[in-house]
């Protein structure tokens, strides 16, 4: 899948990039602050 | 009677009469010419002296001005060095402040120029707008099971639960360990809080000195961290 990634550099510039990530990229489930 | 070509002085020929008036006129002309010449020489000398004096004054003023500027620059440099020394001596410093310019599923914050191992800890304050979603923190873009919490592997360092569209979290990334350790505090809701820690496993290769990016990502590919969200980093020096 493709996601939008905002890259914030040390010099203050920002770039919105499209990045291909695997299907299991996201954590399996939302957990209470761990 | 003939005259000289330039100053018209008398030139007697053999047949010319010799008159006293002719001599007197010539002598008067010579006198007037010498006086005029003397005055011109005096005026030129005075003008030359004035020009030399003016040039000398201008050069002396230029040298004085340059010296003053140099002294001022030295004073500025000294004051700047003193100010920098004061800044360097401050134990608590703001290292980075990011306000996001666009909505995104993931926000990568560069740690370039920040050597975490030089700090007791770097405090991360996320003020995110994310529509009630959980936001996760990763490091260096690592999405594999290199993170550890209570001896359980997982693919994120910590998660931040959204309450009323606000993240009540204070994250500290410790700079002194051989592994990257995070300690964080959160308020689940008003009057109830907790604190916890997690770390990156040593086989991740990530140490405090090699942290390059902090990655904030939402719980799925659809939810976004809104533009205008703010992430601030503060450092406490060793």
Nutshell version of this structure?
Chain A is mainly β.
Lateral strand order in the biggest sheet of chain A: 1-2
Largest sheet of chain B: 8 strands, antiparallel
Per CATH, which architecture of the largest domain in chain B?
A: Sandwich
DSSP strand tally of chain B: 14
| SS-derived structural category of chain B | alpha+beta
SSE run of chain A: EE
Overall, the morphology of chain B is rod-shaped
Mean pLDDT of chain B: 90
Specify Rg of chain A, calculated over alpha carbons: 13 Å
Residue share in helix of chain A: under 10%
Oligomer status: heterodimer
Overall CATH class of the largest domain in chain B: Mainly Beta
Strand content of chain B: 25-35%
Which percent bin holds the helix content of chain B?
A: 25-40%
CATH fold topology of the largest domain in chain B: Jelly Rolls
Number of helices of chain B: 1
Q: What's the story with the biggest beta sheet of chain A?
A: 2 strands, antiparallel
Q: Give the strand order of the largest sheet of chain B, numbering strands 1, 2, ... along the chain.
A: 3-14-5-10-11-12-7-8
- The strand count of chain A comes to 2
Radius of gyration of chain B: 45 Å
Q: Which structural class best describes the helix and strand composition of chain A?
A: mainly beta
Lay out the secondary structure.
The complex is a heterodimer of chains A (34) and B (238).
Chain A: E1 2-8, E2 14-20
Antiparallel strand pairs in A: 1-2
Chain B: E1 2-3, E2 10-11, H1 20-89, E3 92-99, E4 106-110, E5 119-127, E6 135-139, E7 147-149, E8 152-154, E9 158-160, E10 169-174, E11 181-189, E12 192-200, E13 213-218, E14 230-237
Describe this structure in words.
The complex is a heterodimer of chains A (34) and B (238). Chain A has 34 residues and is mostly beta strands. Helices cover 0% and strands 41% of the residues of chain A. Chain A contains no helices and two strands. The radius of gyration of chain A is 13 Å and the shape is elongated. Mean pLDDT of chain A is 86; it is low at 30-34. Chain B is of the alpha+beta class and 238 residues long. Chain B has one helix at 20-89, and strands at 2-3, 10-11, 92-99, 106-110, 119-127, 135-139, 147-149, 152-154, 158-160, 169-174, 181-189, 192-200, 213-218, 230-237. Chain B has an eight-stranded antiparallel β-sheet, with no helix packed on it. A four-stranded antiparallel β-sheet of chain B has the order 4-13-6-9, with no helix packed on it. A two-stranded antiparallel ribbon of chain B has the order 1-2. The mean pLDDT of chain B is 90. The A-B interface holds A 1, 3-10, 14, 16, 19, 21-22, 25-27, 30-34 and B 96, 98, 100-114, 133-134, 136, 143, 149, 154-156, 158-161, 169, 184, 186, 188, 194, 196, 198, 217-221, 224-225, 231.
């Amino acid at each position: 899948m493709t996601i939008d990634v905002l890259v914030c550099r040390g010099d203050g510039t920002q770039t919105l990039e499209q990045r291909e990530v695997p299907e299991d990229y996201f954590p399996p489930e939302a957990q209470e602050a761990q | 009677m003939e005259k000289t070509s330039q100053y018209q002085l008398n030139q007697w020929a053999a047949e010319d009469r010799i008159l006293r008036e002719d001599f007197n006129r010539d002598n008067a002309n010579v006198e007037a010419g010498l006086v005029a010449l003397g005055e011109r020489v005096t005026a030129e000398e005075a003008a030359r002296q004035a020009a030399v004096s003016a040039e000398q004054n201008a050069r002396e003023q230029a040298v004085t001005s340059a010296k003053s500027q140099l002294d001022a620059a030295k004073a500025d440099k000294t004051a700047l060095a003193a100010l920098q020394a004061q800044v360097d001596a401050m134990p608590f410093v703001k290292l980075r402040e990011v306000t996001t310019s666009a909505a995104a599923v993931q926000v990568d914050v560069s740690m370039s120029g920040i050597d975490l191992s030089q700090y007791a800890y770097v405090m991360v304050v996320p003020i995110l707008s994310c529509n009630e979603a959980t936001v996760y923190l990763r490091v260096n873009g690592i999405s594999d099971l290199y993170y550890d919490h209570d001896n359980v592997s997982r693919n994120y360092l910590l998660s931040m639960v959204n309450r009323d569209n606000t993240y009540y979290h204070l994250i500290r990334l410790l700079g002194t360990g051989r592994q990257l350790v995070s300690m964080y505090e959160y308020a689940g809701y008003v009057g109830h809080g907790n604190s916890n820690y997690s770390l990156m496993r040593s086989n991740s290769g990530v140490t405090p000195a090699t942290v390059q990016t902090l990655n904030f990502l939402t719980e799925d590919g659809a939810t976004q961290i809104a533009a205008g969200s703010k992430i601030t980093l503060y450092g406490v020096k060793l």
